[in-house]
Amino acid sequence: MASGHILLVDDEPGMREAVQAYLEDTGFTVEVASNAEEGWEKLQQLTPDLVVSDVMMPRVDGYQFLAQMRGDARFKALPVVFLTAKGMTTDRIQGFDAGCDAYLPKPFDPDELVAVVTNLLKRRSATVDAARGGGGSESHEIADLARQIEELRRAVLGQRSGTGIAQKPSPIQIDLTPREKSVLDLVAQGLMNKEIAKQLETSVRNVEKYVSRLFSKTGTNSRTELVRFALEHGLTT
Question: Of 96, 131, 166, which closes a domain?
């Protein structure tokens, strides 16, 4: 059985229900939205593993929805599959130029959709850490990140002598779940997702979800920004 959390955005109730039922029967967890605005709201709450979106929707179409996602650092690498009745080559090119990962013209074979979604999720799981490292040597990037985090820690400790980062009360209330707090503490120790997953006895994909949620809750876009924010506001020690 497949697994993964999918956000399905389609304004056609019949198509939306059919695709949802098939994906759920295959093993995926599916959340639905009837338009792009609702889809954007649910993105803030769910942090899915992948988005399946119709292209032809009222007010905000799939291309605009995708541009909105790609313009947000939290969703730049989120896999997106377009489903559309527009099957012309120029339309597919427009979809890929907009940043979609796969394009299936209606009517499509449900098994093909499952194969595409499964492949994209596997690829994302295998490459997400390297992608965050900016494409360089993974071991070098990990060492550099650990060094930056250690420097941040020293700066905070140095506040006693007046040279460090002074802690300050958070301007907003940030409610972290126990698991989010555990992940944050390990990120602040300089651990990468694979190491965190091993420590917490969970999957790398789950850790990725928690890190993404932490980015969203703190308004940060990188691990170093997240650690700095957490240290400054006393969210971790």
Answer: 131
